[in-house]
């Protein structure tokens, strides 16, 4: 008998607002709704971060600290 491995269900993605480091050599980024500041600084190199967006898996932040505009 032949048993095929089940294909994993595709993870839904959406265009997500993020903050990314402004330094060329730094690849740090974070989701906007997981930040504590209005304009965060990079936790790795301490540079300023700029707003951007990426296609990311859908997540929900249900904490009291969720950043809201």
TrEMBL record:
Pfam families: YdjO (PF14169). This is Cold-shock protein. It comes from Paenibacillus alvei TS-15. The lineage of its organism: Bacteria, Bacillati, Bacillota, Bacilli, Bacillales.
